[in-house]
Design brief:
Number of domains of chain B: 2
Shape of chain B: globular
Shape of chain A: globular
Mean pLDDT of chain B: 95
Helix content of chain B: 40-55%
CATH topology of chain A: Rossmann fold
CATH superfamily of the largest domain in chain B: Vaccinia Virus protein VP39
Oligomer: heterodimer
Order of helices and strands of chain A: EHEHEEEEHEHEHEH
Strand content of chain B: 15-25%
Largest sheet of chain B: 7 strands, mixed
Number of domains of chain A: 1
Strand order of the largest sheet of chain B: 6-2-1-7-8-10-9
């Protein structure tokens, strides 16, 4: 993590319709993107987790499934493994848990967002995209409360609008954008320096 | 002035120190994020204003400490979680186990007993009944009591049945339990070969010579130093040629004991202790 940068990580929560949304979002980020990206994508517990490998094959960014104790690095996107919660520790490493599902989900967006907000404070960017259910709304609020930046995909164009709507009901998001607008915004935010 | 969140982190580490000194349970080397999440949930439930307030009572009231222990330990697993793992046990590990006159297996961190019973079912189907004993241990006495009873919500049986079949189960899963109202009671026959006992991996010694140690999805909660301690404990409890089974996202690579082990097939997380 660059110490002079305003932000230290991006976290993303996405559910139904997520494959296409992630393709557009991650496909829009350059290989030398300045921040790590950590993603919870709801999948069935016994799904073979090949989405990360698939996206990695045609996105400039390095994309992989998260391993325990892994140190997050710029230019890399990490997926929560199926059937595990993914958390960010204060020392910048990832950890996993098999605690009970939260909002019927494991991995849960709330679990990732809340841990990352505690680890990064105001240095976190949180994004909620297409999906059913309300997982992620509480976590996005925590990010906002800690002074981070919140982004929600415009429900009007999301494939499933419940998750973005639920997030917007919980948080006055800093940005509500169509899918195509999110990556360019991230690129601009990622360059921001800490105010002296 | 320090931030509120920093002060809370200090309160938590003081609480964990106190718990270790008073009760001997050591959570100081647990990975922080998920422990903190569970501690915070427990705190909200109890109604204490903060961890310092809770600490004053927890250190004096054993009942409240048991309640905290329930809140911060992971007490639920699944039967035949990761069916492909149990399939590999059946197909690759069991043939080796059959060469022993008697097999001892340690299920460490057994929670409510789901994995121990899964293993008992599998060994029974492989004709090993009477030739094995499972030592299933956990640090939480309350959850061990549940494990001994072997009673689960009936609604979970649908998922367990599916996993059992995917794992190569040979019979009708319903043969192994009796349904009573909304509960499923596992058959006594499975319980005969399992010893449930209290054991604390962070401070206690090993259990003596085992042919297999199963500890899945527990090490993910530990910091590296504690992982090393526990793995060394397992290593000391395993006979040569024995098997160490970890969770699907846990690995031996990079650990002190890794040199003496070989993974059966990449990604199975079943490691065989090499003959020295």
């Amino acid at each position: 993590m660059h110490r002079e940068l305003r932000f230290c990580a991006v976290v993303v929560g996405v559910s139904m319709g997520g494959v296409e949304a992630l393709r557009v979002l991650l496909g829009g980020l350059p290989q030398d993107f300045r921040l790590p990206v950590i993603i919870v994508h709801h999948t069935s517990p016994d799904s073979q987790s090949n989405l990360a490998a698939l996206l990695d094959s045609f996105c400039p960014l390095r994309i992989k499934e998260a391993d325990e104790e892994e140190k997050i690095e710029a230019g890399t996107a990490y997926f929560a493994p199926p059937n595990y919660h993914l958390l960010l520790e204060r020392d910048g490493t990832l950890s996993l848990s098999v605690d009970m599902p939260v909002c019927f989900a494991r991995p849960s967006v709330d679990v990732l967002f809340e841990s990352a907000a505690k680890a990064c404070g105001p240095g976190l960017i949180g994004i909620i995209m297409t999906g059913g259910g309300s997982d992620g709304s509480g976590g996005l609020k925590t990010i906002k409360d800690m002074g981070g930046i919140t982004i929600v995909q415009d429900p009007l164009e999301a494939e499933a609008d419940f998750m973005p709507r639920s997030a917007l009901a919980a948080v006055k998001a800093d940005h509500v954008l169509p899918l195509k607008g999110i990556a360019p915004l991230l690129c601009a935010l990622a360059e921001r320096k800490k105010e002296q | 002035m320090m931030k509120t969140s920093d002060i809370e982190n200090i309160e938590i580490s003081l609480l964990l120190e106190g718990i270790f000194d008073v009760y001997g349970y050591d959570f100081r080397e647990y990975a922080e994020a998920s422990l903190k999440r569970r501690l915070t949930q427990w705190l909200h439930k109890t109604g204490f204003a903060g961890f310092s307030e809770a600490q004053a009572v927890v250190l004096r009231d054993r009942e409240l400490f048991s309640d905290l222990l329930d809140g911060i330990t992971v007490n639920v697993s699944e039967m035949f979680r990761d069916p492909q793992f149990f399939k590999a046990i059946r197909e690759v590990v069991v043939p080796h186990l059959k060469t022993y006159p008697f097999i001892k297996i340690w299920v460490a961190g057994c929670a409510a007993g789901e994995e121990a019973y899964s293993l008992a079912i599998l060994l029974c189907e492989e004709g090993l009944d009477g030739h094995y004993r499972i030592y299933a241990t956990d640090i939480n006495e309350r959850v061990l009591q549940q494990a001994k009873e072997g009673v689960y919500p009936l609604e979970r049986m649908r998922q367990f049945t599916h996993s059992y079949q995917t794992a190569g189960g040979k019979r009708d899963f319903a043969d192994y339990y009796t349904a009573r109202y909304d509960r499923a009671i596992l058959s006594q026959k499975l319980k005969n070969n399992i010893v449930f006992a209290s054991h604390n991996l962070t401070v206690d010694a090993g259990l003596g010579e085992m042919q297999t140690v199963l500890c899945r999805n527990l090490l993910i909660y530990f910091r590296p130093a504690l992982k090393e301690r526990v793995l060394t404990l397992f290593d000391g409890s395993l006979s040569n040629g024995g098997f160490l089974c970890l969770g699907m996202k846990e690995t031996l690579s990079g650990r002190c004991i890794s040199g003496g082990y070989k993974e059966l097939a990449r990604g199975t997380r079943i490691y065989r202790k090499q003959y020295a």
